[in-house]
Design a protein that fits this description.
The chain is built from six helices and nine strands. It is α/β, with parallel strands linked by helices. It has a single domain, classed as Rossmann fold, CATH 3.40.50. The chain has a five-stranded parallel sheet with strand order 6-7-8-3-9, with helices on both faces. The chain has a four-stranded antiparallel sheet with strand order 2-1-4-5, with helices on one face. Strand 7 (about 160-165), helix 6 (about 175-190) and strand 8 form a beta-alpha-beta unit. The protein is globular. Bound molecules: adenosine-5'-diphosphate (ADP) and magnesium ion. Magnesium ion binds next to helix 1. The site of magnesium ion (MG) has 4 residues, from helix 1.
């Protein structure tokens, strides 16, 4: 499903470089990425999502070479195929919870907002325990509620690939399990693939494979 080869990436400041010789995630696989802070886990997810482009190398999503798409095509491709739960959520402060969750449908014609989607958004929010917060401004949410709003927004378009960047961090144990259950259930129901960065080592046994990000450094194959 995802195949990265001979990738070289660096930020414009030139202070951080990522070399990935070979990285593959199969369709339907649930893969956890671990590694110390600053090792490049978030950078990897941004590359997989096509938000960042590498200086060299290939990023394939199925048959699609992501690096060859135009900016608009890459963005539409991402919004329709990838659910990204950002480490810092990236909620829009001026929108309430419901409008944040529906936002992907308002920024691309590739997704059609209809009654069914709206109903699904409400059901998802209820499942995540924020069903009573739909009209609340996103600035007036607790950290955990913001996190759950970001997860609902990522899952609503029923993406083929879920990228979760520490999506269960800073949650109490009960909510942690609940959120992970929802991520796994959504992955299974939609025959999707899950690539999740996590620091919760007790959750790792639920994944098919664990990649230690330190092995990326120096361009080793994983
Ligand atoms: P992780 O998610 O594993 O903690 P990141 O991918 O966020 O690591 O960051 C990897 C390295 O890249 C860090 O040294 C970080 O300071 C640097 N970095 C992250 N974002 C940027 C950016 N926008 N510009 C320059 N350097 C960045
Ligand atoms: Mg990170």
């Amino acid at each position: 499903m995802i195949k990265i080869s001979a990738l070289q990436f660096e930020y414009p400041s030139g202070e951080f470089r990522l070399n990935i010789l070979n990285f593959e995630v199969n369709r339907g696989e649930k893969v956890a990425v671990i590694g110390p802070s600053g090792s490049g886990k978030t950078t990897l997810l941004n590359l997989v999502a096509g938000i960042f482009l590498p200086q060299m190398g290939s990023i394939r999503f199925g048959d699609m070479e992501v690096t060859q798409l135009s900016d608009t095509a890459r963005r539409d491709f991402r919004i329709t195929n990838i659910g990204f739960v950002f480490q810092d959520f990236e909620l829009l402060d001026y929108l309430n919870v419901q409008d944040n969750i529906l936002h992907p449908y308002r920024i691309t014609s590739a997704l059609q907002l209809n009654r069914q989607v709206r109903d699904r958004a409400v059901a998802l929010a209820q499942e995540m325990g924020i069903g009573d917060k739909l009209r609340r401004q996103s600035t007036e949410l607790s950290h955990g509620e913001k996190q759950r709003t970001a997860i609902c927004r990522a899952l609503l378009p029923q993406p083929k690939l879920i990228l979760a960047d520490e999506a269960t961090g800073n949650l109490d144990p009960a909510n942690k399990i609940k959120i992970l259950d929802l991520l796994f259930r959504s992955t299974a129901t939609h025959d999707a693939t899950l690539l999740a960065v996590t620091h919760d080592h007790e959750l790792l046994k639920r994944f098919d494979r664990v990649i230690d990000f330190q092995t990326f450094q120096g361009g080793k194959s994983v």
